[in-house]
Model the fold of this input.
Amino acid sequence: MSKTKDNEAPPVIEINAEWCKGCSICIEYCPQDVLALENGIAVVVNLDDCNRCQLCDYRCPDYAITVK
Amino acid sequence: MDNFDYTTFLREKKFPLIWCAGCGHGIIMKAILRAVGRVGWDQNDTVMVSGIGCSSRMPGYVDMNTLHTTHGRAIPFATGVKMANPDLHVIVITGDGDATAIGGNHFIHAARRNIDLTVVLLNNTIYGMTGGQVSPTTPRGKKASTASFGNVEAPFNISGLAQAAGASFVARGTAYGAVQLSKYIEKGLLKKGLSVIEAMSPCPTVFGRRNKMKSPVEMYDELRDQSVPVKKAATMSEVELEDKIVTGVLTDVDKPEYTAEYAKLIAKLGGSA
Ligand SMILES: Cc1ncc(C[n+]2csc(CCOP(=O)(O)OP(=O)(O)O)c2C)c(N)n1
Ligand code: SF4
Done:
């Protein structure tokens, strides 16, 4: 089920594929399993479950992911 | 959720970062930028000074006044900046090798003087940049390029060293616990006096691989499992704490700060700074 409340815009996750080095930290520690690795780069596979905790952003060493 | 846009503090033209995949240094840099954002410092009044090492590459990516100096000497350069202009906010970026091997004396004397700098010490327990030599914080038994059969030396407890030498604020955090780490850094920025924030930073390339940790994630899992908050640590024995990383604010005291004491002396003698 979507984590977004009715009156709220859904989260926007931006991934910079040029900067991502595929370390997989964001994927491993996302509490909602929103992300996955595809061809060595993080991708969003389950946006509906994102709760905007931003833990992926906090732990991305390469400034390659933001959540708004 | 933290809405501060840390990208305003980045020199994005210098990206992608030189650090290896999964290196903790980039996470710690972001924890610092978020902390500076929360305290509201202007980047024109803030100076970031580093020595030499992978960790010390940080100022190259940060849009503040930045100084990349010589190995072990970030604290002396930062001391000069702060003495010349005590109104500037001065952050020192250093590694375990930079601050506690070649720069060890500068580190303890800055703590003794209690000069108002914020030292973020990125402790990856190895010399990353030069290929993985033993550092003063390499744990016993761990392998390094200069310890193929395991390190026989005892490691420094960096935070303990800073506390004993007189720093007014000492905290330890990890790249895994980036949210908490950023809060410790924020407290350190606001403290008048020497603040040391020891930030444990996985080095997957020259430490992890040599020590049978196959992926960056394995190293972050280990950091998570080793971390013990300072309150809980108080209830544990020395044996129980042997392989643990005690996290949190370890020291927070008010005591005379060097540049303020110096200004008082000048005023007393009738001069002006
Ligand atoms: C005077 C001098 N001696 C030695 C070196 C070689 N050197 C460069 S970086 C480094 C160690 C850096 O280790 P650390 O401070 O722990 O940083 P890391 O690379 O692990 O982040 C050494 C010994 C140097 N650049 N200058
Ligand atoms: S060698 Fe280690 S410390 Fe240096 S950038 Fe790579 S992972 Fe980070």
Q: What stands out?
A: Strands of chain A lie at 13-15, 35-38, 41-44, 65-67.
